[in-house]
Amino acid sequence: MRFGVVPSSVRRDVLTWHGEAGRTWLDALPQTVWALTRQWSLRIDGAPFGGGSHSYVVPVRRDNGERAVLKVVYVDEENRAEPTALRAYAGDGAVRLHEYDPATGAMLMEHAVPGNRLKSTRFFGHRTPEAAWKRIGIACGLYRRLWRPVEVPPGFPELPKATEMLDGWRAQFEDATEETRRRVGDDRLRRALERCDALADPPELGIGNRDTHLGNIVSAEREPWLVIDPKPYAAERAFDGGYFLFKQQLHGPHSGTGLLRAVAEGLGADADRVKSWALLRFTDHLADTETDKHRDAAVQAMEALEAA
Asked: Which residue among the candidates 92, 211, 272, 292 is catalytic per the annotation?
């Protein structure tokens, strides 16, 4: 099967965020995919998967007939260490990594079948709020399993550090522009700086995950659910929980104290530190949100978590 069309979301985001370097990557993509199929003895087995922002992902067959997925990534600081995490997970709660090409950042990985996203899965006999709790429980159980000591094999990328993210936020909030102050508020900026200091000395370090949400968990045959597309950091357990809590607080049907407790207990993390990471993510989100309508919705969700 010939090279498939690059999904519109990938083309748009790579060009928008990376300009001429993104165009160069897109122009080289057909040749890159062809070279990788030769290198790993693959044949393309269907159209590229839709969606995404930085990756061309296509189903393939290995020379033994096994189904797999070829993922060619526009490598940036957020996704650079994905193969390191997948190698460390070794298929325990996440898709298996079969091959990794350091020159391109491309990965050959397990094809999770049927691959239905947890986010959109309905559970028989569960009403919407009950189903949401079930999804949260599944997700927290997986991310708790995936947190493990940081071990970087030779030839694999080092993990970025969550404490470096705190340094970036601290610099952003200390020297906030007038527009950022308007969007966030001086009191919230002050409290955000206090949280950065409080989280700067983590009680533990392992492979955490920045992109913890229900769309990155899919159904499979080998295990009921597997994590895909991790964005790993060297981080404490509460880091995963903070990012997951932020997403659920902003978009899910549950909120406040009950949600905070479920996430913290599900991940085996300190609830105060989970809350602090989530509130820092909210602060960053407010600083980047341009429209008043979307910012008002985020402020309402943040206030509910602040009161938890």
From this structure: 211
